[in-house]
């Protein structure tokens, strides 16, 4: 049997640039100085929970099926958001507008980190990356509202192609604790290969 090329595991470093929480009944977040994390994510956050209901992203289940919540946290890069904003021909996309919980700096192409990457925060928290977060028109509509163009459907829809592979990562809490702004992070990427 011929194995595919295997890229060895490795480590890269980052810094927590910003922290955000959605305490209301909407995914839009607000900045905070630190995040207290439990096994269900951010207690009280819009996306908190050990489980969640399936939706359009899981067509293999009837809508509303209870399933594991791998969408507890959204990790973003301001560099990638700036690239998406430029493609949409707007000045900026703020992490809060699209439900970001953590912005990290120092990792180029953050959204391309592979599934199963572990993020070790210097304060003791560990997050596990599930996968890329796919951009959707709901987040695009939030961007349009926040720049004063709530009825601009074209702008809202343009977020989907502009943010493809730039929309950040979804992660869940493997080891709870507190994360603070300015904290150092070590990302440990697993071995990678293409299954054929």
Write the layout of secondary structure elements.
Blueprint: E1 10-21, E2 30-32, E3 34-37, E4 51-53, E5 66-68, E6 73-76, H1 78-88, E7 102-105, E8 118-121, E9 126-132, H2 137-146, H3 153-162, E10 169-175, E11 177-180, E12 184-189
Parallel strand pairs: 6-7
Antiparallel strand pairs: 1-2, 1-7, 1-12, 3-11, 4-5, 6-10, 8-9, 8-12, 9-10
Structural class: alpha+beta
Q: What is the average of the pLDDT values?
A: 96
Helix fraction, binned, reads 10-25%
Characterize the largest beta sheet: strand count, sense, and whether it forms a barrel. 7 strands, mixed, barrel
Strand content: 25-35%
CATH level 4 superfamily: PK beta-barrel domain-like
- Major beta sheet, strand line-up: 1-7-6-10-9-8-12
Short synopsis of the structure:
By secondary structure, this protein is an alpha+beta fold.
Q: Can you describe what's shown?
A:
By secondary structure, the protein is an alpha+beta fold. The protein has a single domain (10-189), classed as Beta Barrel (M1 Pyruvate Kinase, Domain 3). The chain has 3 helices and 12 strands; from the N terminus they run ββββββαβββααβββ. The chain has a 7-stranded mixed β-barrel with strand order 1-7-6-10-9-8-12. The chain has a two-stranded antiparallel ribbon with strand order 3-11. The protein has a two-stranded antiparallel ribbon with strand order 4-5. A hairpin with an 8-residue loop joins strand 1 and strand 2. The protein is globular.
